[in-house]
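To the team - 2-OXO-4-methylpentanoic acid complex, inputs and output below.
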Amino acid sequence: MLTFLNSNQYVIDIQPTAHSRINEVDFNQLTFGKIFTDHMFECDYENGVWTNPTIKPYGPLTIYPGTKVLHYGQAVFEGMKAFKDADGSIFLFRPEENFKRINQSSERLAIPHFPKDLFFEAIEKLLHLDQGWVHQGQGHAMYIRPFVFASETGVSAAAATAYKFMVIMSPVTAYYSEKLKVLIAEKYSRAADGGVGYAKAAGNYAAQFYPTNLARAKGFHQVIWTDAQNHEFLEEAGTMNVFFRIQDTLITAPTSDRILDGVTRKSIIDLAHAQGIDVSIRKFSVTELIAAHQSGDVKEIFGSGTAATVSAISGFSYQENFYNIEDQDDSYAHLFKELLQDIQYNRSDDEFGWRHQVL
Ligand code: COI
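Output:
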C-alpha cells in the first residue's frame, strides 16, 4: 500500500491497479466521456469530517436502494481538463476556479465543502498515476469529473449527513464535431430566479434532457435557454454559456442565480479584452437578436464550456422560423478556440496565469 500525505495531514490510501486497461483504448476513436482511466478517487463524509481518502482501480460502487441521492438528487459536479504539451508535461486549466465552484454548488445543495488541499492532491495524484492516458496532440484532453453525492441511506426529505466525493477521469476529444443548429426555448426553462441554475447541480442537467430531446426530434442539436418568466432574454446554450457577435461586439448574458459562471466564458471575456474586442455583458433579448439578424448584424453565435471549448452555432429557430448564420472569415469563435488551446497546450505565453503544471 502506498500513502500520500498532504499538508492537512490527510493520507490518501493509494491502491494501484494490477491490470491497466490502457492498451484496450483506441485514442483515435473516442466517444466523449465513455471510457474512464485506470483509477478513481473516493472520500467519505461521516460524522462531520471528510475521511478515508482513497485512490483505487476504477470500478463499480455498491450502494443501497435507499441512498438519498437516488431519491432527492442531492449531487453536484465539476468539469475540468488536463492537457499534455509537445514535451510530455501535463497542465490543468484554471483548476482553482473549479475548486471554488464545486464548493459554491455544494453550498446551494446543502452539501459540506470539500478541503482545497485534498481536492488538488487527489486530482494531481490521479494524473500522476494515469499520465499515460493523457494523450498528446491537438484536440486531445483528459476530462476530469469531480462530483459529490448524498450517500446516506434513508428517504426522509432532508439534507443527508453522509456524502461521497469522487473524481473520475476520461480521455476525450471534441464534444461536438460539427456546427450546432439550436432552438430558442419558448416553453421550457432551465433555471428560475432563486433556484440552482448557477450551480453544477446534477438535476439541472436532467431537467434539460426532455426539452432537448424534443428539439433533437426536430433536427436541432441543442436548446438556447431563455429566462423562465417571459422567455424574452437569451441565457445559455444547452450545457454551455452563449456569446452573440453583433457586428464586432461580443454580447453575453451577465451571470446570475440562473446562469453558470463558466470558466471558459470568463476566459473568453478576458481574451477578448486583451484582443481589443468590445464585450458587452448584458441582457440580450430574442427580439434584439431577430432584429439584428434582419439587418445583417448577427455575425456569429457560439457556445463556450469546458467540454465543448468553443462551439460555433450555424443557425437558430424561433417561432418556427429558421435564421441561418453565415461562416465568417475572421471568426471570433475560431480565434478564441485557438487562443485558448494555445494556452492549454503550452504553445503560448500564459499571460493570465491559467496553466497549472502537474507533471
Ligand atoms: C462541461 O463543460 O464540463 C459540462 O459540464 C458539460 C457536461 C454536461 C458535458
